[in-house]
Design goal:
The complex is a heterodimer of chains A (about 150) and B (about 80). Chain A has about 150 residues and is α+β, with helices and mostly antiparallel strands. In chain A, about 30% of the residues lie in helices and about 40% in strands. In chain A, strands 3, 4, 6, 8 and 9 form a five-stranded antiparallel beta sheet that branches. In chain A, strands 1-5-7-2 form a four-stranded mixed beta sheet, with helices on both faces. By secondary structure, chain B is of the alpha+beta class. Chain B is about 25% helix and about 30% strand. Chain B is built from two helices and five strands, in the order βαβαβββ. A five-stranded mixed beta sheet of chain B has the order 2-1-5-3-4. In chain B, a hairpin with a 2-residue loop joins strand 3 and strand 4. The longest helix of chain B is centred in the middle third of the chain and has 11 residues. The interface between A and B is medium-sized, with 32 and 22 residues.
Chain lengths: ~150, ~80
């Protein structure tokens, strides 16, 4: 029943992440299951089919940034525990890339904290996604920067 | 002074390397290192770059110290 931030190259068991954050004083756990999407819409509106994804992390810094987000979320929201697990390596379409579980006495804070955590993780955690598609591959560059 | 430079994702592809030890004069910053590296690997300049020193985000003009680990990468895209 503690917080955790981890990286793994193995498939993530979503239910076990959620269960690890549940303390007895809580009434709700909100869990985000983020997974590899098979189609990507580009800025010009065209849609491309992705064959698989590769995630790479600057591991020690990614863990630190995720731990910072957990600390910040616990200051900002009325929540008890947070667990974050992010997958790296090759992911097939539909496989889970990230799980964020937030346990709280009441569900509203858990929903809000979970939304805030994924938004911030996508902005600050040094993890990169490569989309591999028919005829090529491309590292996705994020839209917003940590300093913004 | 010696700086350990790390590349990830697009910057690793642009330079063909993941880690490189670079000798620079005292007073160098991340922008100086990019100039040095981009002279061999101009593809690095096609990206908007972010920097971390010893696993903390810094701006391009932060002065480096001997033995620092400088990570050079593009805007993150995890999640």
């Amino acid at each position: 029943m503690t917080d955790f931030a981890e990286l793994t190259t193995s498939p993530i068991d979503i239910g076990s992440v959620a269960r690890r954050v549940i303390p007895p004083d809580c009434g709700a756990t909100v869990t985000l299951d983020g997974y590899a999407r098979g189609f990507t819409k580009s800025k010009d509106g065209s849609v491309r089919e992705t064959q698989y994804l590769v995630y790479e992390a600057y591991e020690p810094m990614a863990i630190k940034e995720m731990q910072k987000l957990i600390d910040a979320a616990k200051d900002k929201f009325e929540i008890s525990n947070v667990g974050i697990v992010h997958r790296t390596g090759r992911l097939e379409i539909g496989e889970t890339s990230v799980v964020i579980s937030v346990a709280a006495p009441h569900r509203k804070a858990a929903f809000e904290a979970c939304e805030w955590l994924i938004k911030e993780l996508k902005r600050t955690a040094p993890i990169w996604k490569k989309e591999v598609f028919a005829g090529g591959e491309e590292w996705v560059e994020g839209e917003s920067l940590p300093s913004e | 002074m010696k700086i350990q430079v790390l590349f990830f994702g697009a910057t690793a592809d642009a330079t063909g390397e993941r880690a490189k030890r670079i000798d620079v004069l005292a007073g160098a910053n991340a922008a100086t290192l990019v100039d040095v590296i981009a002279s061999d690997h101009p593809a690095l300049r096609r990206h908007k770059l972010l920097f971390a020193v010893n696993q903390q985000y810094v701006s391009a003009n932060t002065t480096l110290n001997d033995g620092d680990e400088l990570a050079i990468f593009t805007a993150v895209s995890g999640g």
